[in-house]
Amino acid sequence: MSLVGYARVSSVGQSLDVQEAKLQSAGCEEIFREKRSGVDTERPQLKECMRYIRKGDTLVISRIDRLARSAEHLLQLSRELEEKGVTLKVLDQSIDTGDAAGKAFLGMLAVFAQFENDIRKERQMDGIAKAREKGVKFGRRPVMTEEQEGEARQLRKDGWALQRIADHMGVSKGLIHKVTSRPGSSGV
């Protein structure tokens, strides 16, 4: 059972000194250090830390925002820690998942994170519906206009090979095949 610390700052210009001092005074035997943005999904030291910790260990961080990029990410990490039998201790917010109150607090965070997600999805769907009402089209723009598709169908009727049409129009042979093979396209 060891105390393992994780310290992170967002940029190269910032210092890990304050966090490291807190983690050392908390008794951390091993400290993983990282200078990366919290939104960066590639945090090699965090991944290494998660691989390093074992059942019975305690992961110690100075503040919640040093570990996770969002409440949802925090809960994912805390579930991962719980599955490994590792407790999480947050020094500045006095959270310790080794006791019932700490687990309850993280549980409340989970509820709020899910609520926030649901509200965000609802707003997004409302926004999409309003945009559609205004005539906004979603998805990828068509590679070919209707006129170009008509030209491709005519060239195919005129006996042009698919590859020749594709080269002529600067698109793939597969797209020409798709355009000229649609029902009612009169493709050869």
UniProtKB/TrEMBL annotation:
| Keywords of this entry | DNA integration, DNA invertase, DNA recombination, DNA-binding
Gene Ontology molecular functions: DNA binding; DNA strand exchange activity
Instruction: Please give the biological process terms from Gene Ontology that the record holds.
Output: DNA integration
Q: Does the keyword Ion transport apply?
A: no
Report the InterPro entries cross-referenced here.
Recombinase_CS, Resolv_N, Resolvase-like_N_sf, SSR_resolvase
Domain Resolvase/invertase-type recombinase catalytic span(s) in chain numbering: 2-135
DNA-binding recorded as keyword: yes
Superkingdom field: Bacteria
Gene3D superfamilies according to UniProt:
Homeodomain-like, Resolvase, N-terminal catalytic domain
Active site annotated at which positions?
Answer: S10
Task: Fetch the PROSITE patterns from UniProt.
Answer: RECOMBINASES_1, RECOMBINASES_2, RECOMBINASES_3
The record's Pfam families line, in alphabetical order, gives:
Resolvase
Q: Which family does it belong to?
A: Belongs to the site-specific recombinase resolvase family.
Q: What is this protein called?
A: Site-specific DNA recombinase
